[in-house]
Amino acid sequence: xxxxxxxxxxxxxxxxxxxxxxxxxxFTLDYYAIGWFRQAPGKEREGVSCVSASGGxxxxxxxxKGRFTISRDGAKNTVYLQMNxxxxxxxxxxxxxxxxxxxxxxxCSQRRGEYDYWGQGTQVTVSS
Length: 128
Known about the structure:
- The chain is mostly beta strands.
- The chain is built from no helices and 11 strands.
- The chain has strands at 3-7, 10-12, 18-25, 33-39, 46-51, 58-60, 68-73, 78-83, 92-99, 117-118, 122-126.
- Strand 4 (33-39) and strand 5 form a beta hairpin.
- 33% of the residues are buried.
């Protein structure tokens, strides 16, 4: 059974850092692109970052470029989102998702409609 579980969320002050983890089971990362998404209250879920199945390609939303870094550990079947210089507008529930949508293992996107499997989310709150 394919499962994704996020962890690492919490309350942090502006300018602080958090590292989110997405532990996957029931499949290996070698064949799935993984995306991170977030949803703030009253807003639509938006793409934050993604990493291709090969691990060789990553993408970031303009709002997080230079502050967030996505990475993966195949041995642990886990994908991470390192978030630095956090801002109040980063406050949201963060979700990871998986897809085999891309025939090119070096491709990924932040279009949520292309992702089939989702975790339950982890809350990130940036506030002083």
